[in-house]
Amino acid sequence: AAERSRAEVDATLQTAKLNPAELLPAVHCLSFGPQAGGGECCLLQLEPGLCAELEAGRSLVIRGEKDERAVLCSKDKTYDMKIADTSNMLLFVPGCKTPEELNGDLESCNIIHSQIAGFSKNYWELRRCRPKLKKLRKLLMEDPYEGPDNQKDQTSTFSKYTTEDLLSLIQASEEEILHQLQVIDACKIEGYWRILDFDYEMKLLNHVTQLIDSESWPLSKVPLCACLEELGSLEPREMIQHILLSYGRKYVDDGEVFFEMREDKICRAIARMLLQNAVKFNLSEFEEVWQQSVPEGMTTRLDQLQGLALVDKSSRPETIFLLKVEDLPEDNQERFNSLFGIREKWTEVDITPYIQDLCAEKQTVGALLTKYARSSMLNGVKVYNSRRPLS
Amino acid sequence: SGGAGALAQWVLVELQGEVQPRQSGDLAGSLLGDLHYTHEGVPVLIVGHHILYGKVVQLEKPFAVLVKEGGAPQPSPTEPHRQYTVTALIKTKLLFKTRPKPIITHVPKKV
């Protein structure tokens, strides 16, 4: 269609009985661009901060496989995406000026031919969500690193993932992924992110704790160099360093690198090692063996096992069994179903370590319990059970 | 993904109801109407035989305009995960919510 002329615009104004003197001289003649009906454009409503990120030249990425609900990731946050319908028609117009932008130009009677790039009755809405990181551990557990002597490692790279691989497979932002890799003590071996096989990890830890013991080093001042020297013939230096970084806090004193060993984490790992060999243990027997198994100078406490093991106070004698929060479902409802399947009634103290990670930004454990559980009193203590009848 | 270099700023025009072409055939290339502004900054849109008065709204939550790469069909809730490029940002909308005034019954102002 031919572009409208000033004469035609004026004629329309006259027919409409509008007074040109009351209007700014510039007019936008809106028409539909060639691609307008194609549906290739869509609108994404931006949460605070995202607009600034885009303007700074940073990217937003939509992630999700065919069986996953899509999420949007900025550099450090993850958002659920949802379609919002309006009852109105939204037209997107490039090069359309606002009155402020036109006001500097009172003289010219110009026509701005604006092409509508697209239109929609809906747009994508974002809601900040927890990054979906369970898959990260699952992927890395496909092929845990068992040490350099392990034959398996020389062969395929099938279940091995680089940072790029993880970015394309995990529904989370890059920062959230890198942070989680640190949390789970993953390490990069030959360019691939690996999680240590637990037995190998304990073997490494044992080398270190034995050395600390034989050298009588204080647990708060373990020298890196000496460790590498003494243990370098037994294990790769990178692995010795990795285990020290995982189980200690690195610091520099007088130019030398030392580690302050993390008592809670070491005790917890040893507990896991003991507990994984049976369905459950007599609690007092376990506590005795556990204390004897940890390095000299360390003290075991049951609260070190939050999210790792659960004590059954109702059995006689009391027992303890392994229950790792990372083995439980990631979805809120599924997590609660799973927990109530394990135990019918939970106190808040017992259940908190197993639902803490479900809390969204600014959400409390109490709010989760209100939503997903029903409370009652049992022997004067407040307990939570499932909202739904379990089969 | 976004990109380096300034992003274009577009404007959203929000209308009630449907937009339909006058002639049969699709919309591409057809005229919508003339957009004027009064001296007070009120947007006035003449569409067909209607005058619509609206207002300029600064969006609390701006929009990004995503363009699907590869020219595939409209993203749906089940299949949104493809390659998109952020083409433009929209921080302003022209909201036409008032009922359109038919041109025929428009009362002329006294000159």
TrEMBL record, chain A:
Organism whose genome encodes this protein: Certhia brachydactyla
Keyword Repressor: no
Identification of the protein by name: Sister chromatid cohesion protein DCC1
Pfam families: Dcc1
GO biological process, one term: DNA replication
Key words, A-Z: DNA replication
Family under the similarity heading: Belongs to the DCC1 family.
Keyword Translocase in annotation: no
Domain of life of the organism encoding this protein: Eukaryota
GO terms under cellular component: chromatin; chromosome, centromeric region; Ctf18 RFC-like complex
TrEMBL record, chain B:
Coiled-coil boundaries: none
GO terms under biological process: DNA replication; mitotic sister chromatid cohesion
Keyword Hydrolase: no
Keywords: Cell cycle, DNA replication, DNA-binding, Nucleus
GO cellular component, one term: Ctf18 RFC-like complex
Keyword DNA-binding attached: yes
Main subcellular localisation: nucleus
Subcellular location: Nucleus
Sample GO molecular function, one term: DNA binding
Protein family membership: Belongs to the CTF8 family.
Protein's recorded name: CTF8 protein
Species: Certhia brachydactyla
The encoding gene: Chtf8
